[in-house]
Design goal:
6 helices; 434 Repressor (Amino-terminal Domain); flat; 116 residues; mainly alpha
Amino acid sequence: MSRTGFHERRRTERMRDPEFRAEYERARSEIEQIDSVVRSLDQLRENTGTSKTDLARRIGRNPSSIRRLFTARSNPELRLVVQIANDLDADIIVVPRRKKRDRRLRSDERANATAA
């Protein structure tokens, strides 16, 4: 299908709406972050020589669900992500974004200056 199909034209049209664009970008960011975590876990699994089936057995999951997790776009439960990380002797760490935090601090400083 060409890139100028109905869905592409519709998305382009809707992206002109700032509210839609903001929600689209937020959802896209979430999906990219989830995909990044899953790809990292899959790479770690491969590096340890663990098969998807063995991993599934060790964490008490159905092997087909683990195969799907690593081969299809999905939104895994955090509990599953933690189980996989634990089995692979890894930690899930949330790292604050420096840029956004700085932005929030600056807006708080402006609000405080205005209030004073």
